[in-house]
UniProtKB/TrEMBL annotation:
Belongs to the leucine-binding protein family. InterPro entries: BCAA_transport, Leu-bd, Peripla_BP_I, TAT_signal. One of its GO terms (biological process) is amino acid transport. Residues 36-382 form the Leucine-binding protein domain. This is Branched-chain amino acid ABC transporter substrate-binding protein. PANTHER family: LEUCINE-SPECIFIC-BINDING PROTEIN, PERIPLASMIC BINDING PROTEIN OF ABC TRANSPORTER FOR NATURAL AMINO ACIDS.
Amino acid sequence: MINRRAMLQGALGAGAAGGALLADLNSRAQAQDAAPIAVGAGLPMSGFAAADGIEFKNGLDLAAEEINAAGGILGRPIEIHVEDTKEMGADIVSQSMQRLIDRYTAPVIINGYNVGTNMIEMDIAADNDVIMMHYNTLISHNEKFKSDPERYYGSFQGDPPEYWYGPGCLNFLKELAAGSTWKAPNKKIAIIPSANEYSIVIANAIRDKAAEYGFEVSLFETVPFPTNQWGPTLAKLRQDPPAAVIVTHFLPQDLAQFMVQFLAQPTDSLIYMQYGPSLPAFREIGGESVNGVIYSTVVGCLPDDFSKPFREAYRAKFGPSSAYITGSQTYDGLWMWATAAAIAGGPGEPFNKEQAQKIAAVMRRNVYRGVNGTYRADPAGQSAYCYPTQVADPSLGMPHQFLQHQDYKTDPKLIAPPLYATDSFVLPPWIKA
């Protein structure tokens, strides 16, 4: 397993200690010029996902600062270049990525997520022979990679695909119902996706697997994307109250409005939401109404000792309300690529297929323990494995984290999986035991 700081101090610092083991790499570095290496990123810096885009940029900036302080990649510093993907979509994202390659000769592009792209990012990476790491969290990445692995050799998804949220959520609810804190009033679950690929894939996975975990789907209601008008859906929920409401829409401002409107006439239902409650906007807009909400993520900074220096550095640099749980994604992505580029002998440049393939081969082989957990590339789809629903070994998969907002004035608490949990589930205040 690669320790990123040890690797960077040796491989990235041209004259660092341990040079005997890396003499060949360092001799090559001395022959190279010290021109900066452009790292591109297509991020939604404006529009409805700007809150995430800002954090994705923060993660890249912090990683670049640390890598450069360690000596850069074989003596060359990193420079971050960002193109705003605004409202996203295939045309905007593809054009943004191509500009990063054409203007800055970027050999790598590290994105957060971009919605509505149909994974066209993979075609841009393939056509230009650059490495592309993204966090779209889509099973369509895996499917596209499988369609032509030789063409899409340089495209990596830095987290598990969204499909695994489905069985993971059902398993969490089943185990919670088996405990003593929550007494499920029935076996019904209501599923509320929004009209986008990510939300619908998760919702379908939950619907299709519900019976296997002992649940009955009482409502499946798709809402617009984005939306903050929850009245009609809440009216249906109140007619037939379920044990749990599962909202797979993910924009934090919309989810906060759901809670405000839900609490006007709450049902005795657990509320589970998708990803959005990890962002500060959820607490800022929802206030006390978000207390008790459960959400999950298959990628996010863990509250463990390993990530503590990152968390502290992130908040010191970007402010006490910054969302390191989001910035951690691109942070890990840049460290993974930089480590692989150093091992492979350099970052290469666009259209240098031979060097890009060398870097991709290292990224496939390495097992990387980052602040989000362990990344190991699934060779069948070139995305991360998910623990515990996809792999049983926590050292070989990224943990599917379940968190609960217990006090909106503080960070959410990690309540599952057990190996990573720091706190226990508490009954939401609207449920009368």
